[in-house]
Every structure is written in C-alpha cells, then in structure tokens.
Design a protein that fits this description.
This protein has 234 residues and is mainly beta. Helix content is 10%, strand content 68%. A hairpin with a 2-residue loop joins β3 and β4.
Length: 234
C-alpha cells in the first residue's frame, strides 16, 4: 500500500514539474499616480514596493507565465505643524497623515522565449486594492530639553476595498538568471471611500486638541504605476 502511495506522489511531483517548468520572482520599487476621477479628487502621488512570483506554464520555452503579486504603497502624505493656546500656555502640535494602498493581483504574463538580452512582455492582472488612512496627532512642545508627547492620538479612521484590474507592459534586460526589469501598469479600480489632504484637520477645545475628519471622498481608483526592479529566474 505504501509503495502505491509513493508511486502516486512521484507521479504528482512529475506532473507538477511538467506543468510549472521554471519560474521567476521580481522585487520592484514603484510610484503610484492617480488618474481620471481619482486624480481630480485626490491629486496625491506616492511610492512603494512590490513582490511578484510567476511560474512558467508547460515547459522551459513556453511563452505563458502565471502567478501573483503583492504590493504596498503610501500616497498623499501630509505633515502639518501648528501652535495652540491650551489653558493659557502655547503648545506645539504635529499632525501626520498617510494614505495607504495594499494591492494583490493574480497575474498572467506572455513573454516570448528567444536568445538575447532584451525580453519584452505583457501582463494581465486581476485583484484587489485595500485603501486606508492613518492619522497621528502629537504634542511636540519642547520646554528646555523636555519633549512632551502627551495627548498623542493615532487613528485608522477609514478603510475600503476596491476591485483592481488592468494590464502592464515591461522589458527585462540582461543575461543569465538575474535581470533588470522596467514596467508600467494601468489599473482600473472600482469606487472606494478615502480621505484627501483637505479632509483631515484639527479642533481645539481650550483644554486640548483633537483630530477632525470631514466627509470622505468617493470615487473610482484608477492608477498608473511605473516600476523598476530586479528579476531572478529560478
């Protein structure tokens, strides 16, 4: 009975090897540029990083790859400093806001196999875009050498999910298993709620300062993403 199990397991490994002959992993640095309605309502660029892993389908010289990609980006960062008179004393505050994107996609790639050092390709992507906002309000008053951080507030005030889909074109340069990779995405995003730079402010009550949030923006989330990175074939 065990011999039959080992034989079945060996056949399974062999079939997997035939289906996914080789693969490649790409680590990239990217920018994010809102476009269309998203740019009109947010006008906030950003940057981040990504990791993608693809498997060659069929055999070593196949043109088709299938895999996934995960990326994280910060866009629309703001940092405001202000002073307020609290209980008769002037205090200094810092209000920091980061809008964040966590994106995950299934990726299908067509990359012709040929001899040389330049390898163009095209990707199709389908997945999600998780958008959320972190806001921190800190008391940074400095009397003498004493930095007082009382009344610090950190909030993830809003988050939303959007469907993300689109394509990318890219080129890999180099010989051997390590290549330089340049690509550009255009991704369509369904509507989501988020804050722009004017949506977050502060209020003073005379005894302290609090973060104030306006109504969130609601729009499509289309983006252009240029990326540079390195690809390792394995």
């Amino acid at each position: 009975m065990k011999n039959k199990q080992y034989f079945f397991f060996a056949l399974l490994l062999l079939s997997c090897k035939q289906l996914f002959a080789q693969g490649e992993a790409t680590l990239g640095l990217r920018g994010v540029i809102p476009t269309g309605e998203f740019r009109y309502k947010s006008d906030a660029w950003g940057a981040g990083a990504s990791l993608g892993v693809l498997a060659n389908i069929g055999h070593d010289k196949s043109w088709i790859y299938l895999g996934g990609e995960l990326s994280y980006m910060i866009y629309g960062m703001s940092n405001r400093r202000f002073s307020q008179n609290i209980a008769g004393f002037w205090r200094n505050y810092e209000l920091e806001t980061n809008n964040n994107m966590l994106m995950g996609h299934i990726v299908a790639r067509i990359k012709p196999h040929h001899e040389g050092n330049i390898f163009p390709y095209i990707d199709g992507l389908f997945g999600f875009n998780y958008i959320y906002t972190n806001t921190t309000l800190k008391d940074v008053t400095n009397y003498g050498n004493n930095n007082n951080n009382r009344n610090s507030q950190t909030r993830n005030q809003i988050d939303d999910w959007a469907m993300s889909y689109g394509g990318a074109v890219g080129v890999q340069f180099g010989s051997g298993n390590l290549k330089f990779d340049v690509k550009c995405y255009y991704l369509f995003g369904t509507k989501a709620r988020y804050y722009d730079s004017s949506s977050i402010s502060y209020t003073s009550t005379g005894s302290g300062v609090n973060v104030a949030f306006a109504e969130p923006v609601y729009s499509a989330t289309n983006v252009i993403i240029p990326q540079i990175g390195a690809t390792l074939r394995f």
